[in-house]
Amino acid sequence: MNDRMEDKWIGLEEAAEYMDVTKDTVRNWIKKTDIPAHKIGKLWKFKKSEIDEWIKSGKSALSS
């Protein structure tokens, strides 16, 4: 059950904190990269496991 709790949906602000970047950086990544972001209504949501995989893939280094 810990794995499920750890992989809950998080918002843009929490994703920025998780990656230690600004919310503006995350917004730019949404526009310019393939960061795994999901729009739910008007809100952007993220899974920590998907963010981790995206970072490990090296794609986050392509544009900041």
> Which quaternary structure do these chains form?
single chain
Largest sheet: 3 strands, antiparallel
Rg measurement, Å: 11 Å
Strand order of the largest sheet: 1-3-2
Protein structure class: alpha+beta
Shape: globular
The H/E string reads HEHHEEH
Average predicted local confidence, pLDDT: 89
Helix proportion range: 40-55%
Low-confidence stretches: none
In words, what does this structure look like?
The protein is an alpha+beta fold. The protein is 50% helix and 17% strand. It has a 3-stranded antiparallel beta sheet. Helix 2 packs across helix 3. It is globular, with a radius of gyration of 11 Å. The protein starts with a helix and ends in an 8-residue tail after the last helix. The model has no long low-confidence stretch (mean pLDDT 89).
Task: State the main characteristics.
17% strand, 3-stranded antiparallel β-sheet, 64 residues, alpha+beta, 4 helices
Quick synopsis:
By secondary structure, the protein is α+β, with helices and mostly antiparallel strands.
What is the element layout, followed by pairings?
Layout: H1 2-6, E1 9-11, H2 12-19, H3 23-32, E2 38-40, E3 43-47, H4 48-56
Antiparallel strand pairs: 1-3, 2-3
Helix pairs in contact: 2-3
